[in-house]
C-alpha cells in the first residue's frame, strides 16, 4: 500500500516511523503546509518523500490525517474526488463534529479514529518510534465506513501494535472530555497559577515528581488543544463542572476541618489503584 | 554515628537504605508503632535493628522523624530528655506549625527539613534505593538549630546525594502549598470526578499518559495528606482559590468561545517549559 500522512508533527511523524516496519506499507509520503516541517520530516526520515500538493496525496491507497481537528473537517471537503477504494483515517482527539461533517459521497472512504497516545511535545522533532506500540486506538462509528476501509484501518493499526476499541462518536467525546480534555485544562490552569504566584527559582528548587507530572501536559500545543476545546466544548464544560463540585467539597472539608470526611474522600480517590 | 529512624514507611525506609552506604552511619535503628512495619523493615533490610521503645532510640546520635506531621509535633514533646549532642531531624511536608511547637529546651537539637521527593506509594514495601539521590531538601530556620546539629544534618543529607536549599518555615509552607499540596488536592479531586462519572472499563481503555500522570498522586496516603492539609490549611486554601480563578478563566473563555485568548492562555502555560 502507498500511504500518505497529512500533518508531520508528533502524531504523523511517529506514525511514519511506525509504518516503516509494517508489511502493508510499501511507500510512505508526507504532506504538511509548514515547509519547515516537510524538510525536518525528510531529514529525520519520518517519511520517504514529500507530496507537492494535496492532489498528489490523493493517489495514495491510505491517507492518515494527523492534523488539528478543525483542519480535518476542512481538508475532507477537498477530498470528494478520491478513488473509490481510498481509505482516509483521521486521528483527531474529538469525533462527533468530525464524523457529522464528512461529505456523504465519501463517507464510506472515511474511518474515524483516535489513538489514545501522545506526549506533551510537538512538531516533527517530537516524533518517536514507539508512540503507538501497545496503546489503545478508538475507532468510532465504524459501521458507517466501507468494509474495505474498516479492514484497512484495523489491519494497519494492529500492525503498528495498537489495541482496538470500538465506540460511538458521541460516547467517545464524553469519555475523552473526562479522561483527557479536562485533565489538560487542569494542567494548563495549574501551570498558570503556579507561575503567577511563584518565582521560577522556587519552582525549580521545590518541584517534586508530583508537580512535574501534573504540569507536564501544560506544555502541550495550544494550536492543537484550542481546537479540541472548541470541538468538544459542551462535554468539556460539563466535565469541568463535575470537577469543580468535587474540588469544592475538598475545600469545604479543609475549611470546616472535617478531617475524617477528608480522609475518606482521599481513600475514595485511592481506589483508582484498583483500576489503573 | 548511631542513627535512629522513627517511621519506617516510604520516606523512612528509603532513608535507611540510602544511609547504609554513607560513611557517617555506623548503625541504623528503626522504630515504628506499627509492628507489621517493623517486621517488614527488618526483612527488607531497610534498617539493621528495631528499637523496642522510644527511650532506646534516644541513645542515637541522630534521630530522623519520618512520620506524619501531627506525629512529629506529638513525639517532640517526649524528647525533652535527649542528650545535649543529639540531633533530631524531621522530614515533614509542612514546617511552620512544627517549628513553633518544638519545646524550647531542645530547640537547638532540632533541625526542620523537607526532602522534596516521594512517590505515591507508601509503607515499608514502597521504600526504594534512590529516592533521595539528586533531589532537593529544604532546611528551614536553620539558624535556630545548634551549630553541631546544623552540620550533622547538612552532612548526612549531602552524603545521601541531596541538594540543600535554605528557607524560612513560613516561606516554605506557602511555596509547598502551591507546588506540592494544591497539586495533590487537584489530583484527588480529578480521580474522584472521573471515577464518579466513568466506568472502570472506559477508564482503563481510554486513559493515556496525561490522565495517568495527573491522577498518580491521588493514590497517595490519606493518613499523611490529611495531616498535611490540616497543618497547612490557610496556605492550601489560598492556593486553591488562585487555582479556581485560573480555571474559571479557562471555563469562561471556552463558554464564550474566546479562542484567541484561550490559545494565549495555553501559550502562557507553555512557558513552564523554560523553567522545568
Task: Describe the overall structure.
Two copies of one chain form a homodimer. The model of chain A has no long low-confidence stretch (mean pLDDT 96). In chain A, 51% of the residues lie in helices and 13% in strands. Chain A has two domains: 166 residues, Rossmann fold (3-Layer(aba) Sandwich); 103 residues, Orthogonal Bundle (6-phosphogluconate dehydrogenase C-terminal fold). Chain A contains twelve helices and eight strands. Chain A is α/β, with parallel strands linked by helices. An eight-stranded mixed sheet of chain A has the order 3-2-1-4-5-6-7-8.
Brief digest:
Two copies of one chain form a homodimer. The first copy, chain A, is an alpha/beta fold and 276 residues long. Chain A contains twelve helices and eight strands.
Strand order of the largest sheet of chain A: 3-2-1-4-5-6-7-8
Largest sheet of chain A: 8 strands, mixed
> How many angstroms does the end-to-end distance of chain A come to?
37 Å
Helix content range of the residues of chain A, please? 40-55%
- β-strand percent of chain A reads 5-15%
Q: List the uncertain runs of chain A.
A: none
How many domains make up the coordinates of chain A?
2
Tell me, rounded to a whole number, the average pLDDT of chain A. Answer: 96
CATH architect. name of the largest domain in chain A: 3-Layer(aba) Sandwich
Amino acid at each position: 500500500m502507498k500511504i500518505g500522512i497529512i500533518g508531520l508533527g508528533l502524531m504523523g511523524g511517529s506514525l511514519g516511523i511506525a509504518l516503516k516496519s509494517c508489511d502493508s506499507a510499501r511507500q510512505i509520503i508526507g504532506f504538511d503546509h509548514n515547509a519547515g516541517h516537510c524538510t525536518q520530516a525528510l531529514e529525520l526520515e519520518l517519511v520517504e518523500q514529500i507530496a507537492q500538493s494535496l492532489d498528489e496525496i490523493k493517489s495514495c491507497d491510505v491517507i492518515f490525517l494527523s492534523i488539528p481537528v478543525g483542519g480535518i473537517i476542512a481538508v475532507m471537503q477537498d477530498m470528494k474526488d478520491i478513488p473509490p477504494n481510498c481509505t482516509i483515517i483521521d486521528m483527531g482527539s474529538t469525533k462527533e463534529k468530525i464524523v457529522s461533517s464528512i461529505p456523504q459521497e465519501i463517507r464510506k472512504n472515511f474511518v474515524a479514529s483516535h489513538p489514545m497516545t501522545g506526549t506533551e511535545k510537538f512538531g516533527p522533532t517530537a516524533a518517536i518510534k514507539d508512540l503507538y506500540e501497545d496503546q489503545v486506538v478508538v475507532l468510532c462509528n465504524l459501521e458507517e465506513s466501507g468494509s474495505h476501509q474498516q479492514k484497512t484501518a484495523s489491519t494497519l493499526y494492529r500492525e503498528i501494535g495498537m489495541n482496538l476499541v470500538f465506540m460511538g462518536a458521541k460516547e467517545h467525546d464524553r469519555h475523552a472530555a473526562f479522561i483527557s480534555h479536562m485533565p489538560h485544562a487542569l494542567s494548563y490552569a495549574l501551570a498558570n497559577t503556579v507561575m503567577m504566584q511563584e518565582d521560577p527559582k522556587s519552582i525549580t528548587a521545590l518541584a517534586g515528581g508530583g508537580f512535574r507530572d501534573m504540569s507536564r501536559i501544560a506544555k502541550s500545543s495550544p494550536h492543537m488543544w484550542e481546537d479540541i476545546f472548541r470541538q468538544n466544548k459542551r462535554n468539556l464544560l460539563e466535565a469541568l463542572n463535575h470537577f469543580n463540585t468535587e474540588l469544592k467539597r475538598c475545600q469545604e472539608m479543609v475549611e470546616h476541618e472535617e478531617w475524617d470526611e477528608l480522609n475518606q474522600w482521599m481513600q475514595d480517590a485511592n481506589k483508582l489503584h484498583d483500576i489503573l
